[in-house]
Design brief:
Nitrilase/N-carbamoyl-D-aminoacid amidohydrolase, about 40% helix
């Protein structure tokens, strides 16, 4: 029995094996599996809100999708990973549009899809469903190139099943037992499946007794950093703050790099924001320079006091190149006009304001475990999704934040440009 569970099928290499991977049958079932395991993103993207329908469809599609992963052939599993990566991450190279290298977008899509196809192919070498279930249960800890957005449990966020690791493990165990046992013995699989159900259903986390405006801007990336747009951008941001004051908000949260400049070097603007902060707490994104290094930061203005929180976790290939320095330098010189990687803070920052204490997070950080150390009660997250829109990226980010909010019991106040500004609790 143990021999069957841990059996590894010897891989074969050669033209005939390679050619067989393109069989229509393998392509079809790989595609169908990917559709089942991506449906939760696109239901949200297309604005389908009926809770009963969404929960029912995502539960069934997760069961079918993961079952196919546990029983599929090696080639089918490769194509499942390939198409899942395409459906989830086709947008990754969209930022190339703003560096004049749009022709590399298809290559990035192919690179990411082939990469995940290869990861799934490695899992396919283990033929027993129980072993595959074990391996897939730990995929959320696997972060190629420091990128952690492939978390299999995301498929269950909008379902009737729980997202905790033990619940996901029981869910996969039920499918593995169903696939392994014969005839009436399959009924045993019902037990772990029932135990994986989220009961009682997750309740909303309580909100603080303050009124917060989350700015929801729609500024295209092509003009965001244009020097000729700087004055108008500042005027628009000030107008949002004044609107929040007039509507009696306690706090206004602007998005990542709302002030597209090294904000701490603009003394006049800093003084203006300090004066306005006598009326309202102001949170905004902006760059920070210490004279030597550059930081992606959040500025907090509270009754003329200034707090600055620098980003801790950088976006792979967006703010840092997670490769050896000589390769990173070549990529920065070739694709990013010689720009240097941003520097980071050493640990997450909790900002104590007159209206409460908040953990600071900037975009990608709000989807990383490192930022939730200590289970913060409240988090302010700011994003600029304009790099990747139009695409499903803002929706996927929101679902990820829903996952981390439930996992750590943290209320997230998210303000985004060209994204989804919302309270997640």
């Amino acid at each position: 029995m143990l021999g069957e569970i841990f059996y590894i099928q010897r891989p074969y290499f050669g033209w005939r094996t390679f050619k067989s991977f393109f069989s229509p049958e393998y392509l079809f079932f790989g595609f169908v599996t990917a559709v089942f395991l991506s449906l939760f993103i696109y239901l949200d993207y297309f604005g389908i809100k009926n809770e009963l329908f969404v929960k029912s469809v995502t539960t069934v599609s997760a069961i079918l999708g993961f079952y196919l992963l546990l029983v599929s052939s090696r080639a089918t599993l490769f194509w499942s990973g390939f198409f899942i990566a395409f459906f989830w991450f086709y947008w990754i190279g969209f930022s190339f549009r703003y560096y004049g290298v749009s022709e590399f977008i298809p290559l990035m899509v192919l690179f990411v899809s082939l990469g995940y196809g290869l990861f799934f192919w490695v899992v396919s070498l283990f033929t027993h469903p129980l072993t595959r279930a074990f391996l897939f249960s730990f995929f959320s800890y696997f972060h190629p190139m420091s990128f952690n957005w492939f978390i299999p449990e995301l498929t269950l966020v909008h379902s009737y099943l729980g997202i905790a690791k033990w619940q996901f493990g029981l869910f996969l165990l039920s499918l593995a037992l169903f696939a392994s046992f014969k005839r009436w013995h399959k009924v045993v699989a019902i037990i772990p499946l029932v135990l994986s159900i989220e009961y009682p259903p997750t309740q909303k986390l309580p909100l603080p007794d303050i009124k917060i405006m989350l700015a929801d801007s729609k500024l295209d990336q092509s003009v965001k950093w244009d020097p000729s747009y700087k004055d108008r951008s500042i005027e628009n941001n000030i107008a949002v703050i004044l609107e929040a004051i007039s509507e009696k908000y306690d706090m206004v949260v602007l998005n990542e790099s709302a002030f597209a400049l090294f904000l701490n070097t603009d003394i006049e603007l800093m003084q203006k924001l300090q004066e306005l902060s006598k009326e309202i707490v102001i949170v905004t994104g902006g760059l920070y320079s210490d004279g030597k290094n550059s930081y992606n930061s959040t500025y907090y203005f509270d009754d003329k006091k200034i707090y600055i929180a620098n980003k801790v976790v950088l976006v792979p290939f967006g703010e840092e190149i997670p490769l050896p320095k000589f390769i990173a330098k070549w990529i920065n010189d070739t694709f990013y006009d010689g720009a240097e990687d941003y520097k980071t803070a050493k640990k997450p920052t909790d900002i104590k304001l007159s209206v409460g204490t908040f953990r600071n997070a900037i975009c990608y950080e709000a989807t990383r475990d490192e930022l939730f150390v200590g289970n913060p009660k409240y988090m302010i997250a700011i994003s600029n999704n304009a790099w990747f829109t139009p695409s499903i990226e803002p929706v996927l980010q929101k679902i990820l934040m829903e996952y981390f909010s439930r996992k750590y019991k943290t209320v997230i106040f998210h303000s985004a440009n060209m994204g989804i500004s919302t309270v997640i609790h």
